[in-house]
Amino acid sequence: MNKVLFITGPTASGKTSLAIKIAKKFNGEIISADSRAIYRGIDIASAKPSLEERDGVIHWGFDIVNVGERFTAYDYQQYAYKKIEDILSRSKLPIVIGGTGLYIDSLLYNYQFSSEPNYELRDSLENKSLEYLVEYCNKNNINMPENKKNKRYIIRAIEKQGYKNNGRKDNDFTSIAVGITTDRSVLKDRIVKRNREFLKLGIIEETICLSNKFGWDNESMTANAYPLIRKYLDNEINLEKLIELMSIRDWQLAKRQITFMKRNKKIHWLQLEEAEAFIEKELS
Predict the structure, then answer these.
(1) Residue 14 labeled ligand binder
(2) What's the number of domains the chain is made of?
(3) Is 73 annotated as a binding residue?
(4) CB neighbours (10 Å) of residue 47?
(5) Final residue belonging to a domain, choices 102, 133, 161
(6) Please, are residues 48 and 201 in contact by the beta-carbon 8 Å criterion?
(7) Are residues 150 and 215 both part of a single domain?
(8) 11: annotated binding-site residue?
(9) Known binder of ligand: residue 106?
(10) Exposure check for the chain: N or C terminus, fewer CB within 10 A?
(11) What is the mean pLDDT of the chain?
């Protein structure tokens, strides 16, 4: 087969378990499309599946760079295409899974990126209002820094995602793209339960380790739950408030992910159970 399966959807929608199940049935290997999972050490906060959860399925796209190192959407695209080519060459099924919409789109539509900094764009962003930059991040699924009132920080977050022009060309493979849709109340419950599990797994200890190593001002420490855990460590909030705020932040992320990915007409949106049947039919 010359097919590549894409599974996307909001955080906590059940993408990982579905991808592993499909990979075991169809001799697949998984390529993560998560802009947080690329970092070494960001494990629990990025919901990387454990070795036990991976159940023998090979995973790519984890632990590519150190915290603080530059890694753009262009870098991800080039990395993922090489993995897709390698997996197909071994007559196996590449399964791209994740919630970073720009990563998914860059592969589905084969965006033509510039690998060099776009100074013209940077200058144009400098002239934009803070409100415009915040809206740009929301529309393009870009994680903003904790200090949302600092234009320089927001521009750096945008730059980190790489720059896309209008050029596209066809891929050499056939894409099957599925998005997992979930009832909002169910998704909210899953998010809360997952955050409670993150605490049991040691997300606070992970945060302390990373902050000691890289400092709180590192851009990677301004995303995920880390700023909220810092408030907990500083005794500004208690444990229950931490879970509440982490869940609110994840829900806001899920809404941004849904808004961004719903624009992609190549994605078939299905409930988790329906998605499995649809994928098996497309691959059979």
Answers:
(1) yes
(2) 2
(3) no
(4) 21
(5) 161
(6) no
(7) no
(8) yes
(9) no
(10) C
(11) 89
Close Cβ partners of 274 (under 8 Å, ≥ 6 residues apart): none
- CATH number, residue 27: 3.40.50.300
16 is in an annotated binding site: yes
pLDDT score recorded for residue 56: 97
pLDDT at 162: 55
Summarised one tens digit per residue, pLDDT across range 92-118 is: 999 999 999 889 999 998 887 755 566
Q: What is the largest CA-CA distance in the chain?
A: 55
Q: What is the pTM of this model?
A: 0.83
Co-location of 104 and 52 in the same domain: yes
Identify whether residues 276 and 144 lie together within a single domain.
no
**Is 220 within any annotated ligand binding site?**
no
Known binding residue 15? Answer is yes
| Domain interval for residue 143 | 119-161
**Region 119-131 average pLDDT:** 76
Contact criterion met (CB below 8 Å) for 191 and 9: no
| Residue that is last in its domain, among 109, 140, 161 | 161
For 58, the token pair is 């090979």
Neighbour count for residue 16 (Cβ, 10 Å): 21
- Dump pLDDT digits (tens) for 145-198: 766 778 877 887 777 665 554 455 678 899 999 999 999 999 999 999 999 999
Q: Which position has the higher pLDDT, 223 or 268?
A: 268
